Amino acid sequence: DLRVHDNRALALAAERGPALPIYVVEPELWQRPDMSARQWDFAAESLSELQRELAGCGQPLVIRVGDAVEVFDAILHQHGIDRLWSPEETGNAWTYRRDQKVAAWCRDKGVRWTELQNHGVQRRIKSRAGWAARWDQLMSEKVAPAPTLSPIACDTQNVPSVKDLTIR
Hints:
Elements lengths: L7 H8 L6 E4 L1 H4 L6 H21 L4 E4 L2 H12 L3 E5 L5 H17 L2 E5 L14 H10 L21 H4 L3
């Protein structure tokens, strides 16, 4: 989620203690045929803005480039994390398989992963019965304010360019 306001995962994580906002840039994802340089340019612009906004909240965005599981494993060893918060991903088959790997890593490492719905897509349901009521309930929740974050020392990387990611 590339914003500080109305980012429930970030707000809830910050309520529970120090939170380290991380964005993992996955070159393998961005090199897929259903991704484009135009899409990355938008994401990169949004990440740059998010870096500025999070710095104003007390903790700059940590950007890492690589495989999500490998990045989380390095963060775990560096900071001893026990919880991972994120919005639910509703991308493509590649991101679904990545999420399965992250879930397996979390189980193996004893890291609790909380994924929060942030749009109309509802994963893991067998029937759409009741969908509208659940959507109305989600949309009636209060907008999460930008949190105040406690600084955590962590190295970061620059937002990579289209050329860095070899996107067509």
